[in-house]
Amino acid sequence: MVKHLMEQTQTKKGLKVFVHVLDKVYQIGRKATEAFKQQMPIIHDEFLSQWNYRAVPALSSGGKVI
């Protein structure tokens, strides 16, 4: 039901929302390794930073995403 409601959303300009629900149960409290933290730094959003964040691939010395 919630997925259906989310799919009905659109912006004032008419952009449509596509929804894909992941039904896998993920382990909580798992810590990231130091290698992951170096290769994929976590960027926190200013708004609700505890929930809104992303892991961004670090750039190699050649300026390309590794």
Rg for CA atoms: 17 Å
- Which strands sit side by side, in order, in the main sheet? 1-2
Number of beta strands: 2
Give the CA-CA distance, first to last residue.
39 Å
Calculate the mean pLDDT score and round it.
83
Shape: extended
Q: What is the count of helical runs?
A: 2
| Run of helices and strands | HHEE
Please give the largest β-sheet: 2 strands, antiparallel
Decide which structural class fits the backbone. alpha+beta
Low-confidence stretches: none
How much helix, percentage-wise, in residues?
Answer: 10-25%
Q: Approximately what portion of the residues adopt beta-strand conformation? A: 5-15%
Describe the structure.
The protein has helices at 2-7, 34-39; strands at 42-44, 53-55. The protein is of the alpha+beta class and 66 residues long. It has a domain at 23-66. It has a two-stranded antiparallel sheet with strand order 1-2. The chain is extended and about 40 Å long. It starts with a helix and ends in an 11-residue tail after the last strand. The mean pLDDT is 83.
Nutshell version of this structure?
The protein has 2 helices and 2 strands; from the N terminus they run ααββ. It is of the alpha+beta class and 66 residues long.
Question: Strands, helices and their partners?
Answer:
Layout: H1 2-7, H2 34-39, E1 42-44, E2 53-55
Antiparallel strand pairs: 1-2
Which structural traits does this protein have?
single chain; 66 residues; alpha+beta; two-stranded antiparallel ribbon; 2 helices; 18% helix; extended; Transposase_36
